[in-house]
Design goal:
InterPro entries: TPR-like_helical_dom_sf. The chain is mostly helical and about 800 residues long. The protein is built from 36 helices and 4 strands. Strands 1-2 form a two-stranded antiparallel sheet. Strands 3-4 form a two-stranded antiparallel sheet.
């Protein structure tokens, strides 16, 4: 490590240990001085005063700095003590190589101690990329521990091994899901759902492999315990694949499960759109209930499980039944005899069921086109007083909004806000929460426009740097989540206000404490893709737009713009500025503020997410370039059957190599891991704006990250690559004959070599994993007809 880097590291560590300190760096390595206004710098915090002592007497930060300078692994206890200090992203990235080295060299017990000290930092900073690296090392340590026990003849109890995995999952889920600040009465938003789903799936599958490595008999195979399966399935971050894995494992080993497990599994299936499977799971739950298996001796837990089962039955009926059948099922819970409760803490189980029943009924009827707004309002008048709360009335507001009754919907929202203002301390969050705010933003947009909707959300949103709201305070009291951000980005997309969308994207974290995720990035990219279509442009603006395009195409002195130059906004100004900083200045256009077009900025943001989090992706080669740079025999091997593509095409790696570069020290989006849907929007953006040469590289990035593309993404990418047909190449076929090959064929062969081992079909049962030439041709005709229809309209 260079001297300047060590000096900068000393500044970072000193600054994080003393947030109010003024750091001065001198020329020599390790001579960073920390000047504090009130406290004289001491031996503990000043790297300048390092003495030639050894052992625990040396301060952890200085020991860590000296180990990095000598490129030696740091002692585990020094790193654990160093992690007691608050750190920002840059400081954590600087010392993370030493942390990784210690994780790999430490014993299993010390390894877990270090991880427990590290997880709070990863969760607070939403370091998703670093969490995956830590997870891989920890699983490798578990394998080493099991192998060591086998060699030494030690017997590892399955319950002990299960405890290891459950502790890791519980610790990481806690630190990554909790919000930075919590408001009493408001439910805490679940953060990083996709990350927790990925981690849970990887851990459970690895646990099953670990149990298979433990000694067992042919008549008694080791399996997961019923309590662990129950604890896993009741979590909100369990996805459909993990649910299927757990249920199949329980069925194979004949593990008895409680009724709450089947209810939770039905909810997961219902969320993924598998209604028939959800109904089958509910029938299975009823069968287990008839057998008398409850799974808990605690009466409170038993009652809670019964309530959850009833709510699950309601939700399944909401999706699978007609409105008449749903009404019959919910009728026992729509009684008007329930009296209002003095406070939310005394809500009985019956009241919880009544509120869920009314919420489900209004939500279902809101989507029924045959139900009028008058019928919805009349139905709401029969609602018990205790059920007149936010999560029931919000469904009514949404139904009125869909029917164009915006004024009435706005009146109800205003009444809910007034009730929240007059609520007691124990009633906070009962009438107006972030869900009502998200729906209210859409209503406000329909009535008063986009600027008013953003002003409405910003006036009610809680700031991270503000104190918690007092009782009766509605202004700046709602803790926002990613859903509210996505709603605002969607409104910007509908209006074509892409400049406001980029402001919201940049301001979400410093202003509201909201971490955008892959779905937010998808909405941003889609909005930039159709920015020119959604906005009505005058003839003069159209002429200027085309004139700029012509100048750009014929400019021989044009230079590539650095990615950092795309940043037009300052995050520091967004934190405490007025709402006007989120809006477009009057009488200004996009080109008055930016040199690049919206789609170019969206492309830059996406690339910054990828290349900032995974710098090693910059060395990934496009499949077409990789083929063209090799010799002719290797190129022709693509068509030589088993001896060709399987050997010439690199295999996708299930885990990241330890030598993979860490995220950049100032990477701004380490909390985002692009998903298959996000890559689909990015590939659509590249194809729409005539950059098909970057589409094969995008697929190569997906392979490096282990992201499996959807069928529609493969079809879209192959279509754009085929339309921008380059010069064909002479290659040797399977029989030795030479023939001309198109880029689309080369890319298709490469994709088949990547996805041929995927047992799950991307399109459906019995279909190929990669679209054929006929599939792409059919989609091209459909795509062309749709564009012609849109142009005609």
């Amino acid at each position: 490590m260079r001297a300047t880097e060590l000096s900068r590291l000393g500044e970072i560590l000193c600054r994080t240990a003393f947030p109010r300190a003024r750091v001065v760096a001198t020329a020599s390595v390790g001579q960073t001085r920390c000047l504090h206004k009130r406290v004289k710098p001491t031996f503990r915090h000043s790297p300048k005063q390092i003495k030639p002592h050894s052992g625990d007497d040396l301060p952890p930060l200085k020991n860590l700095l000296r180990s990095i300078r000598k490129k030696q692994p740091s002692p585990t206890n020094h790193i654990i003590r160093a992690l007691e200090y608050p750190m920002d992203h840059a400081a954590l990235i600087e010392i993370f190589p030493s942390i990784l080295a210690s994780l790999q060299n430490a014993k299993f017990r010390n390894n877990w101690k270090l991880i427990r000290a590290l997880l709070p930092h990863l969760g607070r900073l939403r370091e998703v990329v670093l969490l995956k690296r830590v997870l891989e090392i920890w699983m490798a340590k578990v394998e080493q521990r099991v192998e060591l026990a086998r060699v030494e003849g030690e017997t590892l109890e399955p319950e002990k091994v299960e405890k290891w995995y459950h502790e890791f999952l519980a610790e990481s889920a806690w630190h990554f899901s909790k919000a930075d600040s919590w408001v009493a009465g408001q439910s805490e938003p679940l953060q990083n759902v996709a990350v927790l789903q990925y981690q849970s799936t990887v851990l459970v599958k690895h646990l099953l492999q670990t149990l298979a490595m433990l000694p067992s008999s042919s008549t008694c195979r080791l399996h997961l315990s019923a309590p662990l399966i129950e604890r896993l399935l009741v979590k909100r971050h369990v996805d459909y694949d993990l649910c299927q894995t757990l249920l199949s494992h329980a069925l194979h080993h004949k593990i008895p499960l409680s009724t709450s497990v089947y209810s939770a599994a039905a909810m997961v299936a219902l969320k993924e759109g598998h209604t028939s499977e959800a109904m089958a799971l509910m029938k299975k739950r009823e069968q287990e209930g008839v057998r008398g298996y409850i799974g808990s001796d605690d009466p409170i837990k038993e009652e809670r499980e019964k309530v959850a089962s009833v709510i699950a039955s309601m939700l399944v009926a909401k999706t699978s039944s007609s409105p008449e059948t749903l009404l019959q099922i919910l009728e026992p819970y729509l009684s008007s005899e329930t009296q209002p409760l003095p406070d939310a803490s005394e809500a009985s189980n019956d009241t919880v069921l009544y509120r869920h029943a009314w919420s489900i009924l209004l939500s279902r009827l809101a989507r029924e086109k045959t139900v009028t707004s008058e019928a919805l309002l009349e139905l709401s008048k029969t609602m018990p007083v205790s059920c007149t709360v936010g999560h029931t009335m919000t469904c009514l507001v949404h139904g009125l909004m869909l029917r164009g009754k915006l004024n009435k919907a706005w009146q109800i929202l205003s009444a809910l806000a007034e009730m929240e203002k007059n609520a007691t301390d124990k009633e906070r969050g009962r009438y107006f929460d972030r869900v009502a705010l998200a729906v209210g933003a859409q209503v406000c947009h329909g009535l008063y426009g986009l600027d008013a909707a953003i002003n409405y959300v910003d006036s009610l949103a809680l700031r991270p740097w503000q104190s918690l709201p007092s009782p009766g305070q509605v202004h700046n009291s709602i803790k926002l989540d990613r859903v509210c951000l996505d709603v605002l980005l969607g409104l910007c997309k509908a209006e074509g206000a892409v400049s406001i969308a980029f402001r919201l994207w940049k301001a979400a974290l410093p202003r509201w404490g909201v971490y955008a995720d892959d779905s937010s990035l998808k909405v941003l990219v889609d909005g930039a893709r159709y920015a020119s279509q959604n906005k009505e442009m005058s003839e003069e603006e159209v002429f200027r737009e085309r004139w700029r395009d012509m100048k750009a195409e014929f400019s021989f002195r044009r230079k590539e713009v650095e990615e950092d130059q795309f940043e037009a906004y300052d995050a520091a100004g967004f934190a405490k500025g007025p709402t006007s900083v989120l809006l477009d200045p009057p009488n200004t256009t996009w080109h008055d503020e930016h040199r690049e077009k919206p789609w170019q900025m969206a492309r830059s943001v996406f690339r910054k997410v990828l290349l900032g989090n995974w710098p090693g992706l910059s060395d990934v080669v496009s499949p077409l370039d990789e083929v063209e740079q090799t010799m002719m025999d290797r190129f022709s091997a693509l068509f030589d059957g088993d001896s060709g593509i399987t050997h010439s095409t690199p295999r996708p790696s299930s885990s990241t190599s330890p030598d993979t570069p860490l995220p950049a020290p100032h990477a701004p989006y380490t909390h985002i891991c692009p998903s298959a849907s996000t890559f689909h929007s990015y590939i659509a953006l590249l194809g729409y704006y005539s950059l098909p040469q970057e589409i094969p590289l995008s697929f190569a990035w997906m392979r490096s990250l282990g992201v499996k593309p959807k069928w529609k993404t493969l079809r879209l990418g192959l279509m754009y690559v085929g339309e921008a047909e380059g010069p064909r190449r002479w290659v040797k076929g399977p029989g030795g004959e030479r023939r001309l090959v198109r880029d689309e064929e080369v890319l298709r062969e490469w994709l088949q070599g990547w996805l041929e081992d995927d047992s799950r079909s991307l399109k459906g049962s019995g279909e190929m994993s990669v679209p054929s030439e006929g599939d792409v041709a059919e989609f091209r005709r459909m795509f062309s007809k749709r564009n012609q229809r849109i142009t005609a309209e």
